């Protein structure tokens, strides 16, 4: 059942397929805990990989890492394959790269402070509007003065410099209160204690390393270890949102490709929108809308569809709805919302079936030819070919040992940036003035040796007075200063931040 232009999802009254040409139209996988969302996600990731599409997925529970290992013939999987007539089902494994923001269960993932930008950083730090305004001033000051912001010590040094010059900067950029700077610094300390110091720095993640294919043409599956990361939910959500913005900023327009260039699975998607200000939700909606034209498909995985704002939900065309339970008024609302988002099937009541689905069953609706949503179908989802479950530590190490990116990311780089630049300036200001050296005693010139003839001319009135230095610039000095001003001005004009405040990649 493996075809070149579609992914086999499962069987209802007929086989259900996801067309690859609509794989970048985004999707939604929802359902209560234990209903089979993870297995569905794994099966879709396998399908994209087989088709040569790189995949990025967040491994929240630690069991999606099994995609890199050969599958097991477990009884419930064999039974499901037989039930749906999946005769082509066999054990398989897929090329994978493991990542981890903390560098323990995968290669370290890093971003620089400048790449993150003030908007997303404010989101991580949970800053209010006033504090976010001061952080924007700090970033603008850094941009105007050519200060590289790479890691947390750079940002701390920048905030100290802004506090020192708060009165001066207030006249140029707006009010900069020292008390507000102190609040930002305290939030920064809390973030550092949560392990963010491991995330900010270099070598920063290159999007190209998420878009690899293996020698046999399969898309490489990048698995982010997110089990520990969920203890810092804001860092988790903001990191994935930053990745989306990077994809949008860096990738060229491709229109409607025959298959996606990358598929991005965002598990526990509600964390992205929990307590998020409307301005940030608007940005997310904008990124989700526009990133499709870059050939990127985004699939949100969460328990209830009401976890996703309506403006974003309307962009998700391919849907897999596992069972929901209607125990509370909120649950009943979620069931109703989920049912209303599907194209009705006259054969059954969608709202009733959602609460009756068994494990591994789901309501499926995907885009058909012409971009029209298919009629919702009660579907038994195909079993994955790779292992359903986690890897052992030794198996994970083995995969990492053969990774094509380990050499690049496992080594920390600490080049000169804002911290070093500002430290040198402070040292230069506080260093004592050098004591001028005493002039060397003048020695009289030896008398000339006479070789006959008249003696050479000699002025006994003493050495001629030294020339007074001119205050005028030479032509070369004036030209150099003019060039420096022009370069500085061009750099300042070129420092344009992207849709979510990250610095343009060409300037990093």
Radius of gyration: 31 Å
SSE string, helices as H and strands as E:
EEEHEHEEHHHHHEHEHHEHEHHEEHHHH
Low-confidence stretches: 449-462, 464-495
CATH superfamily descriptor of the largest domain: P-loop containing nucleotide triphosphate hydrolases
Global shape: elongated
As laid out across the biggest beta sheet, the strand order is: 2-1-12-11-10-3-9-8-4-7-5-6
User: What would CATH call the class of the largest domain?
Assistant: Alpha Beta
Strand content: 5-15%
Topology:
Elements: E1 6-11, E2 15-19, E3 27-30, H1 37-50, E4 55-59, H2 75-83, E5 96-100, E6 107-108, H3 113-125, H4 129-144, H5 152-164, H6 166-173, H7 178-193, E7 221-225, H8 233-250, E8 262-266, H9 270-273, H10 278-291, E9 296-302, H11 310-313, E10 318-321, H12 329-340, H13 350-354, E11 361-365, E12 377-381, H14 393-401, H15 406-409, H16 418-430, H17 475-494
Parallel strand pairs: 3-9, 3-10, 4-7, 4-8, 5-6, 5-7, 8-9
Antiparallel strand pairs: 1-2, 1-12, 10-11, 11-12
Overview of the structural elements:
The chain is an alpha/beta fold. It has 2 domains: 6-109 and 204-391, P-loop containing nucleotide triphosphate hydrolases (Rossmann fold, 3-Layer(aba) Sandwich), CATH 3.40.50; 113-198. Helix content is 38%, strand content 11%. The chain is built from 17 helices and 12 strands. It has helices at 37-50, 75-83, 113-125, 129-144, 152-164, 166-173, 178-193, 233-250, 270-273, 278-291, 310-313, 329-340, 350-354, 393-401, 406-409, 418-430, 475-494, and strands at residues 6-11, 15-19, 27-30, 55-59, 96-100, 107-108, 221-225, 262-266, 296-302, 318-321, 361-365, 377-381. It has a 12-stranded mixed β-sheet. It is elongated and about 105 Å long. The model is unreliable at 449-462 and 464-495 (pLDDT under 50).
């Amino acid at each position: 059942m493996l075809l070149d232009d579609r992914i086999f999802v499962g069987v209802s009254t007929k086989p259900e397929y996801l067309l690859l040409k609509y794989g970048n139209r985004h999707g939604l996988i929802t359902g209560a805990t234990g209903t089979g969302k993870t297995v569905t996600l794994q099966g879709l990731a396998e399908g994209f990989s087989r088709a040569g599409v790189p995949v990025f997925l967040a491994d929240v529970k630690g069991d999606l890492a099994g995609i890199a290992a050969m599958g097991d013939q477990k009884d419930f999987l064999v039974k499901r394959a037989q039930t749906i007539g999946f005769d082509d089902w066999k054990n398989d494994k897929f090329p994978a790269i493991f990542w981890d923001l903390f560098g323990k269960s995968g290669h370290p993932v890093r971003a620089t402070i400048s790449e993150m930008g003030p908007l997303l950083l404010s989101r991580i730090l949970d800053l209010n509007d006033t504090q976010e305004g001061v952080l924007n001033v700090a970033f603008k000051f850094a941009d105007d003065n050519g200060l590289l912001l790479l890691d947390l010590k750079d940002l701390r040094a920048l905030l100290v410099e802004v506090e020192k010059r708060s009165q001066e900067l207030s006249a140029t950029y707006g009010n900069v209160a020292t008390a507000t700077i102190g609040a930002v610094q305290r939030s920064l300390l809390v973030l550092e204690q949560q392990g963010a110091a491991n995330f900010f720095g270099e070598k920063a993640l290159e999007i190209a390393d998420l878009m690899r294919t293996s020698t046999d043409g399969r898309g490489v599956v990048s698995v982010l270890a997110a089990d520990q990361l969920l203890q810092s939910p804001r860092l988790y959500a903001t990191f994935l949102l930053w990745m989306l913005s990077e994809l949008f900023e860096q990738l060229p327009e491709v229109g409607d490709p025959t298959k996606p260039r990358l598929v991005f699975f965002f598990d526990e998607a509600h964390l992205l929108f929990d307590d998020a200000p409307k301005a940030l939700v608007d940005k997310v909606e904008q990124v989700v809308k526009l990133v499709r034209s870059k050939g990127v498909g985004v699939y949100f995985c969460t328990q209830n569809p009401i976890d996703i704002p309506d403006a974003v939900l309307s962009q998700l065309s391919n849907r897999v709805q596992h069972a929901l339970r209607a125990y509370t008024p909120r649950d009943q609302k979620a069931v109703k919302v989920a049912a209303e988002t599907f194209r009705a099937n006259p054969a059954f009541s969608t709202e009733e079936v959602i609460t009756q689905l068994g494990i591994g069953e789901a309501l499926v609706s995907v885009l058909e030819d012409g971009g029209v949503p298919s009629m919702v179908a009660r579907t038994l989802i195909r079993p994955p070919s790779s292992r359903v479950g986690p890897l052992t530590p030794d198996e994970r190490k083995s995969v990492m040992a053969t990774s094509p990116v380990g050499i690049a990311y496992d080594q920390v780089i600490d080049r000169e940036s804002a911290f070093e630049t500002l430290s040198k300036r402070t040292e230069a200001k506080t260093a004592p003035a050098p004591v001028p050296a005493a002039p060397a005693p003048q020695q009289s010139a030896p008398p000339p040796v006479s070789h006959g003839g008249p003696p050479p001319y000699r002025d006994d009135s003493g050495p001629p007075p030294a020339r007074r230095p001119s205050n005028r610039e030479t032509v070369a000095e004036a030209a150099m200063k003019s060039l420096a001003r022009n370069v500085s001005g061009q750099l300042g004009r070129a420092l344009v931040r992207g849709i979510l405040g990250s610095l343009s990649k060409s300037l990093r």
